[in-house]
Amino acid sequence: MTTEEKIFNAARIVFQKKGFAGARMQEIADEAGINKAMLHYCFKNKQQLFQAVFMKAFSQLAPQINTIFNSEKTVFEKIHQFTQEYIDFVIRNPFLPQFIIQEMNNNPEFVMSILNHENRPHPAVLMAQIEQEIEQGIIKPLNPKQLLLNIFSMTVFPFAAQTMVKGILRINDAEFNQMMEERKTIIAQDIINSIKK
Amino acid sequence: MTTEEKIFNAARIVFQKKGFAGARMQEIADEAGINKAMLHYCFKNKQQLFQAVFMKAFSQLAPQINTIFNSEKTVFEKIHQFTQEYIDFVIRNPFLPQFIIQEMNNNPEFVMSILNHENRPHPAVLMAQIEQEIEQGIIKPLNPKQLLLNIFSMTVFPFAAQTMVKGILRINDAEFNQMMEERKTIIAQDIINSIKK
DNA sequence: ATTTGGTTTAACTATTTGGTTAACAAAGAT
DNA sequence: ATCTTTGTTAACCAAATAGTTAAACCAAAT
Q1: How many CA atoms lie within 13 A of A82 on its CB side?
Q2: What is the pLDDT of residues B73-102, one digit of tens each?
Q3: DSSP code per residue over A65-102
Q4: Can you list the domains of chain B with their CATH numbers?
Q5: Which among A122, A153, B47, B161 has the fewest CB atoms less than 10 Å away?
Q6: Which of B123, B156, B183 is nearest residue A146 as measured by Cβ atoms?
Q7: C-alpha dist (Å) from residue A150 to A129, A154, A170
Q8: Which of residues 6-65 of A touch B (CB under 8 A)?
């Protein structure tokens, strides 16, 4: 692993845990096992290092979403596939949702500025398809945006609010992961149940 | 408005926007329109000021939840009441969810230490009731924790991830608020639809 | 062997930032 | 009137933290 990779990984860990403002360059250097000056040798400054980490994170999420949303399948199939694959992905990257949400809220302008057309989720196709299937009588009449929001809410929230969820439901890491595994199949059924005609 | 109140309100605004780590005492002083030394005159330090703000925030949320969850109504009624009143409350305090979630994730030990028995949500009663109604054949067999998680996800997530939601769905503040108004009735129906036998 | 280029470090600097101090002012209390 | 308490400020301090520099290191090329 190159030094740059070591730094990047360390930065990912620290930024995801503490956020941009809470992260310390020294802590990242320690985590990477190198000198602090190396951070500035490989990445100009904290902002740019953060930007690299954030864009990588976001560009892992978005294309996956778009691939599913814009495929040739039915809405129900897409819901199944999305909840399955997305939860699968987030189980492997449990800090991503909270990280992205936090930074988007704390620093909307900065985040918006680094999001290009490629790495942005595009729900337009899926939304049109939902309206179509409503007309065809497959789906109950509803606001497609609300449905989309429901899908995201059910899949992403438990991870975004992980600590609170564990605290309120009084479950530990193992039970949490087990619940998320369960959720991979439950959610799609619940959502489809509530919208099919 | 007393100086202490001015400080507290300013602190609430700044902390909710930037989080604990990102907030600056100077910014809070400016927001309050007073000298920075006054902050330390009224509140010992940043931590304590933050603690005051956070506890107030949390102790506004939790009792409300408990009152609904532990009332004498049916599960369906509770779901209706909760989504209605909770979204109503959060519309008036749109930064609270993200604020609480963020700080719980960034600083779990600290947050847990300031949460006492009073201001903590207790879903035990509702969970037992759900199991009971499952046995009575009112609700489909399911894991009560998953249902609870669904309810929270659907109501809280849109606010917690506000910036991202607006960005992805390409809606402005007005449209967002309108969607949330809609949601007050939609969500309960969706959830009940998906779990009633 | 020596040079040369990128890599890495220790030590340093500049700035930000939470917190303190001492002086000042306004309002009650004696 | 004078003293005491409370509220308020400007100026200051010390610690933390992002960022710089110059020297050392080291591998490959000459």
Answers
A1: 33
A2: 999 999 999 999 999 999 999 899 999 999
A3: HHHHHTSSS-HHHHHHHHHHHHHHHHHHSTTHHHHHHH
A4: 1-43 (1.10.10.60), 53-195 (1.10.357.10)
A5: B47
A6: B183
A7: 16, 6, 24
A8: 17-22
